[in-house]
Write a structure and sequence with these properties.
- This protein is of the alpha+beta class.
- The chain has a domain of 195 residues.
- Helix content is 35%, strand content 26%.
- The chain contains eleven helices and 15 strands.
- The strands form five sheets. A five-stranded mixed beta sheet has the order 12-3-2-15-14. Strands 4, 5, 8 and 9 form a four-stranded antiparallel beta sheet that branches.
- The radius of gyration is 21 Å and the shape is globular.
Length: 317
């Protein structure tokens, strides 16, 4: 892989659109994609760049406030992470990954308070995680999540490490009470992951706790409540949201996946902090850059922190 060097301070002189359209960024994206996923298709990287750059620019146009708040370097790195992962940010109900602004801790100030920096991250959904785990050989495949309603016949057992599910669908349906997913490992063995109502109620309570923020002007905590999807289905959890949650939490005990610097799995946001991808990015960091502090706590003046219940860093609005 050839060395395409881009200095950090050069990104700060470009607009978000110019970063994606920069010839060196384009060349690097295509090079990484072809190296990792091109195989015998010589035009794979070019087609991927043309497709993903359109989605990226569309996101930047629709979320200009977020884009103007994040660092230019994180825009480049999250874009290149698409080539590293081989996924797509094409929007949809079962999107493989999506872009999100996050407030990330970068250090402490002179008084010992936390310093935060706005960054653009590539977040891999549960569906995207399935693709990654299939590619790396952790699983053979996984069935679509199955919703269980109170009218259904359902039981789950775990005997000597062997999990099994007995399920019968009984119509009509009213209230969902569980969700399970069947996973087939490469050795042919079967694994099941099950979420019950008490599981997503616990997540809902955690979401409400994480979504609160401190209003300095009022000197008090503001309660925003849990993610609306926990109660958007006539007071119950949104079924599509629940299915994504089931996928997300099915792999809590599986080995961690290798992802890029600005990529985060919904189920494991710490993964990106453990990776060393410098050989991929080839960014010259000899020029020191000082991120703008976001205050001494997670809530900086003028910024609303909206934390994801499965993450340690906060998504900002």
């Amino acid at each position: 892989m050839s060395n395409i060097n881009i200095q950090v301070d050069e990104f700060n002189k470009l607009t978000p659109h110019e970063i994606i359209e920069d010839s060196r960024v384009k060349e690097k994206f295509i090079q990484v994609w072809d190296t990792l996923w091109g195989q015998d298709n010589k035009e794979a990287g070019i087609k991927a760049y043309e497709r993903e750059s359109i989605y990226f620019r569309r996101y930047m146009d629709d979320n200009y406030k977020t884009i103007n708040a994040v660092t230019r370097l994180s825009i480049f790195m999250s874009f290149l992470d698409l080539a590293v992962s081989g996924l797509s940010v094409e929007p949809g109900v079962r999107a493989l990954c999506y872009l999100q602004g996050r407030s990330t801790k970068v250090g402490v100030n002179d008084r010992g308070g936390d310093l935060y920096e706005n960054r653009l991250t590539l977040t891999v959904s549960g569906y995207g995680e399935l693709v990654l785990r299939e590619r790396c050989g952790q699983i053979k495949y996984a069935d679509n999540p199955v919703l269980v309603y109170k009218e259904d016949s359902f039981s789950f057992s775990d005997k000597d490490g062997r999990k099994s599910v007995d399920y019968t669908c009984n119509l009509p349906h009213t209230t969902v009470v569980a969700c399970f997913i069947r996973i087939v490992r490469n050795d042919g063995s079967i694994d099941y992951a099950v979420m019950f109502e008490e599981d997503w109620m616990r997540l809902s309570n955690y979401s409400a706790k994480q979504n609160r923020y401190f209003d300095r002007s009022k000197n008090q905590w503001i309660e925003k409540g849990a993610n609306a999807l926990y109660s958007s289905n006539n007071g119950g959890i949104d079924t599509g949201f629940l299915m994504a949650k089931a996928i997300k939490h099915a792999f809590k005990t599986y080995p961690k996946l290798r992802v890029g610097k600005e990529t985060v799995l919904e189920a494991d946001v710490d993964t990106m902090k453990e990776m060393n991808m410098d050989d991929i990015y080839n960014v010259d960091e000899q020029i020191e850059t000082k991120p703008e502090p976001f205050g001494e706590t997670k809530q900086a003046p003028g910024v609303t922190i909206d934390t994801n219940e499965d993450s340690g860093d906060g998504a900002f609005n």
